[in-house]
Amino acid sequence: MKPMKPMKRKVLGPVLTSASRLGLPAGLRADFSASLVVFLIAVPLSTGIAVASGVPVELGLITGIVGGLLTGLLPGSSLQVSGPAAGLTALVYEAVREYGVGALGILVLATGVVQVAMGLLRMGRWFRAVSAAVVQGMLAGIGVVLISGQLYRLADANAPSGGLEKLGGLALLLTETLESPSALVALAVGSGTVAVLALWPRWRRGARALPAPLAAVALATAAVTALDLPVDRVRVNGLLAAVEPPDGSDFFRLGEMGVLGTVLAFALIASAEALFGAAAVDRMHPGRRTDYDRELIAQGAGNTVCGMLGALPMTTVVVRSSANVRAGARTKASRVLHGLWLLVFATLLPWALEAIPVAALAGVLVHSGWKLLPGRELGRLWQDHRGEAAVLLATTTAIVVTNLFEGVVIGLALATFKVAWEMSQVRVETVRAGDGFVRARVIGNATFLRLPKLLDELESLTRSGRDVVELDLRGLRYMDRACRQALDDWAGRHTVLFEGGGMMAV
Fold first, then answer.
1. Which of 30, 122, 246, 385 has the least CB density, counted as fewest CB within 10 Å?
2. Which subcellular locations apply to this protein (predicted)?
3. pLDDT tens, 77-96?
């Protein structure tokens, strides 16, 4: 992918003009303008993710503020933006349902500590070794779970727990929605939001003035307010009232196996999403590349502070990061300023959130989940690499059936098995030596995965009425202990002479 060119000046004309009037240098003007664009995207996304996670909307804003003001200042990457991400929504929702909102602080704090430790141990680079099919499957699984859950919120209904339960209840949801006038109104608001999100970028003049998520939520809010529609709206209690730091008793919960498993899941998924997002953002611009270990430490520091405030976990948000690059950001100043604008908004204008319909935020997340699905990429992958496509589909299915953490573990196991299977290519070539004798040469990598095939081929030589006079092992690049023992036994039963027997000592 070629580096993406920064937005031309005319795309952000009004904002750039305002920045120019401030007398700012050209580089800072670009960062100032980009920060406003990212801020306008961050408000609806942060509040929507908080609602979908089952926590107060202020906690999503707090995570965005910390992601800008703290993580934005730390070394690691320059243009990617951190905040609450849709990828962790399902996991956070299940954790809140299981342990309560009060336990969120200790979960996120411990997650941050684990991430800092991983960064100090220089484990960040290892995330680059994860199969691309597993990453795509993880994103697709997140998309399916996110969409299936937010479809209920489109109709102002409560979603059941579990991916399969959400999918299985969609038919009943449709029936109940058709029978409820208020649910139909909410569905119309949410569906209209999705339609605006899909169509807004096609109107170039409008897209230059406002980002699509803000335009969609603003139009939905204006319609609901003007018509006084009977739909659920966001509830706001104030920024300080939402802060709930963990107390001493919460730390004892880290001894519970379930809590430790949740922390590990948070740490691995948040780290993977952050570093995969960093790799994607690096491909969008020609500037300095991300230092994966430092970025992992920065993400960990941010999550540690978020945990102290009882907020949502943070990771890289690709939507905000790509908007930051497209808006012409040059340094990390843009992401720091975006955090400052979020702080000002949450402090001075929290009442503005109370007018937003929940169905509109659900529409934003349905659209975000849809963009996580592979779509055409899956078709091309199936044509060229069916094994990779199978791993992708299996990972997605496992996430929907179980949960995000277990699904990714299953995907990694399948990807590892696929590589081991493909690397275990072995064949037997034979040469006639006369008088019914043949010479057999084994070529490739002899592992236990292909041992049955190897023995079948060797046995077929003796069943044909011929005797094997020589077994040449010099064509083997690798042979494990199981194959060595099996070939020893087979050669002993058929009085075969080894050629290149030194290969047996593996």
1. 122
2. Membrane
3. 778 899 998 778 878 988 89
The letter for the amino acid at 143 is G
Residue 207 sits at φ, ψ, to 5 deg, of: -65, -30
B/e letters for 417-445, b = 16+ CB within 10 Å, e = fewer, are ebeeeeebebebebeeeeeeebbbbbbbb
Tokens 């945990």 locate to: 307
* β-pairing verdict for 437-446 and 426-434: antiparallel
pTM of the model: 0.72
**DSSP H helices in 358-403:** 358-372, 376-384, 386-401
| Average of per-residue pLDDT values in the chain | 81
**263-290 burial, b if ≥16 CB within 10 A, otherwise e?**
bebbbbbbbbbbbbbbbebbebbeeeeb
* Lookup result for tokens 């002479």: 497
Helices (H), 200-291: 204-209, 212-227, 239-242, 248-251, 257-282
Q: How far is CA 65 from the centre of its chain?
A: 21
C-alpha 229: how far from chain center: 35
Neighbours of 257 (CB within 10 A): 7
SS (H, E, C) 268-287: HHHHHHHHHHHHHHHCCCCC
Average pLDDT for 263-282: 82
Q: Which positions ≥6 away from 292 have C-beta within 8 Å?
A: 76, 124, 125, 127, 128, 275, 278
The dihedral built from the CA positions of residue 479, 483, 489 and 495, taken in this order, carries a sign that is negative
The continuous run of DSSP H or E covering 453 comes out as helix 451-463
pLDDT tier at 146 (50, 70, 90 boundaries)? confident
